[in-house]
Design brief:
It contains 6 helices and no strands. By secondary structure, it is mainly α. The protein has one domain. Helix 1 packs antiparallel against helix 2, helix 1 packs antiparallel against helix 3 and helix 1 runs parallel beside helix 4. The protein is rod-shaped, with a radius of gyration of 28 Å. The two termini are 39 Å apart.
């Protein structure tokens, strides 16, 4: 007895799960990109403050004669203090390191999003990958990224990284059009059979 070839079926549940995974990968990718951009901007901002204030302090100390007035000493100390504090903030919060970590996480989510889109862009009738296998691999990859990523605080997410439309997926429209086409084909087949 010969086994019949297994038909690969992408039903509504599998397609909706695929769409949900696409939304989540896109959402996390954008959040981590924004976090990386913010930390990179903060690194640049505090670096600029450090460079400018230390340059001013150096210029003032070199340009003044040996007799520095109390007022000039106060200004010089102020610029030196600003330079030291901004450098300390920059080093303590590790803006550049965190920016690179967030960029790597965003890239991981982008790769996952691309894999999901690679399957989602194919008409469900013509997909060669089995839904259970693909969705399991996708979920395993989500879990792996989640286990290794540096979490973003909820406060920062709500204030800076969350934007409307992040959780929208073009695959949703594609799925709706596909379902509409199936329904039209079934209606046409029924009408032909009735005649």
């Amino acid at each position: 007895m010969e086994l019949s070839p297994v038909k690969i079926v992408w039903g509504d549940y599998e397609n909706e799960t695929l769409i949900h995974n696409h939304k989540m990968a896109k959402l996390y990718k954008k959040r981590y990109q924004r976090a990386s951009d913010l930390y990179n901007s903060l690194f640049s901002f505090f670096g600029l403050i450090t460079v400018i204030s230390s340059s001013i302090a150096t210029t003032l100390s070199w340009g003044s004669s040996e007799d520095i007035s109390q007022n000039q000493q106060f200004i010089l100390s102020g610029f030196t203090t600003v330079s030291a504090i901004s450098a300390a903030i920059q080093n303590f919060y590790k803006f550049q390191e965190n920016s690179e970590i967030y960029t790597k996480t965003a890239k991981s989510y982008a790769k996952l999003q691309n894999k999901i889109e690679g399957v989602g862009n194919i008409n469900p009738k013509h997909r060669e990958v089995k839904p259970q296998c693909f969705l399991k691999k996708t979920q395993d990859r989500f879990d792996q990224i989640s286990d290794t990523r540096v979490e973003i605080s909820n406060c920062m997410t709500n204030c800076f990284y969350k934007k409307e439309g992040d959780d929208e997926s073009y695959l949703e429209d594609k799925h709706r059009r596909y379902k509409r086409t199936i329904e039209e084909e079934e209606t046409l087949t029924i009408q032909i059979n009735d005649n």
